[in-house]
UniProtKB/TrEMBL annotation:
It comes from Schistocerca gregaria. Residues 279-299 are annotated as: Disordered. It catalyses: hydrogencarbonate + H(+) = CO2 + H2O. Belongs to the alpha-carbonic anhydrase family. This is carbonic anhydrase. The keyword Transport does not apply. It is an enzyme of class 4 (lyase). Residues 22-277 form the Alpha-carbonic anhydrase domain. The keyword Signal applies.
């Protein structure tokens, strides 16, 4: 019995350190074509990203989608090179939550991260009418009632991800410089740095948050949990070539350059993508609320 318990504990520790698992990459023998060998869910039928054909979307309307952010902004933020992306965490006094739209309950902000490609013509994971953007930013939220991201991953409605598509232009993105500057301090796998200035999450969203695509999908990295309600804004935001180039200087765990970190398109199968807009009665409010406005009914 003692032996049996020790054995079980040993296996749990082995799994928890992750040493038993081969990590994933974006090319070669650990690349996307092989993810399902180690992470079976990556071969499922509800995977992301997908190509969104706008003329095949279902046009619907929905209650307002809004962020609730307590206290003063902006918040302290840190940026990590996890070998697969630049991952940003915020340190608000209280959780930032996402409400409304296709969501039936509050979702808590966990992290945001970026996907890019080897040149400015490719980079986003999702495609709209078969067209890729230069980058894609994912803001990941988990369902509050599930308590933690790891528990949320077990449920089909565990996560909501806000996706923002970025297209290259000359002027670049006015909000991203603190993130871009911080990239040079996280060149190597495992590096973490604080941003020089705080960050307000909603400043990264497009101005028009009233129109978005939504569909049921998965995380776009192993283990590819089929637990995500995707919310992809129809309006894009800008980024300059210099800004994207800074992301391509990050290195992976084995020291090679992370020039591209996008998963290829997955079959949509029998899933429906909705194009959601608000009826005029919803349009008067903004998509964000601060403390004090919480609970106030909009017109
Ligand atoms: C980064 O910020 C998150 C959220 O505040 C915090 O939990 C984490 O400890 C920070 N990491 C480092 C290395 O400072
Ligand atoms: C950009 O990269 C993609 C994928 O590697 C490639 O197919 C395409 O030809 C490249 N475009 C340019 C303009 O270099
Ligand atoms: C869609 O297809 C999957 C398997 O490919 C199946 O499990 C699911 O029931 C189907 N859903 C509908 C609504 O047909």
């Amino acid at each position: 019995m003692v032996f049996h318990q020790a054995l079980v504990l040993g296996i749990v520790l082995f799994a928890a350190t992750g040493k038993a698992q081969v990590d994933f990459s974006y090319e070669g023998e650990d690349g996307p074509d092989h993810w399902a060998e180690l992470y079976p869910m990556c071969g499922g039928s509800r995977q992301s990203p997908v190509n969104i054909q706008e003329d095949r979307t279902k046009k619907t309307s929905s209650p307002a989608l809004w962020l609730y952010y307590p206290g003063s902004i902006p918040w302290e933020a840190n940026l990590t090179n996890n070998g697969h992306t630049a991952l940003l965490k915020l340190n608000p006094a209280l959780p930032i939550t996402l409400h409304g739209g296709p969501l039936s309950a509050p979702y808590v902000f966990q992290q945001l991260h970026f996907h890019w490609g080897s040149n400015d013509s490719v980079g986003s994971e999702h495609a709209i009418n078969s067209h890729f953007s230069t980058m894609e930013m994912h803001m990941v939220f988990y369902k509050d009632e599930y308590g933690s991201p790891s528990n949320a991953a077990k449920y089909s409605d565990g996560f909501a991800v806000l996706s923002i598509l970025l297209d290259h232009n000359e002027n670049g993105n006015p909000v991203l410089p603190p993130v871009v500057w911080a990239l040079q301090r996280i060149q190597n796998y495992g590096d973490v740095t604080n941003l020089d200035t705080g960050l307000a999450l909603e400043s990264l969203l497009p101005n028009d948050r009233h129109l978005y695509y939504t569909y049921p999908g998965s995380l776009t990295t192993p283990p590819c949990d089929e637990a995500v309600t995707w919310i992809i804004f129809r309006q894009h935001v800008p980024i300059s070539s210099e800004q994207v180039a800074a992301f391509r200087t990050l290195k992976t765990e084995d020291g090679s350059l992370l020039t591209s970190n996008r998963r290829p398109l997955q079959p949509l199968g029998n899933r429906t993508v909705s194009l959601v807009s608000f009826s005029s009665s919803h349009r008067r409010g903004s998509a964000t609320r601060r403390r004090g406005q919480h609970g106030r009914r909009r017109q």
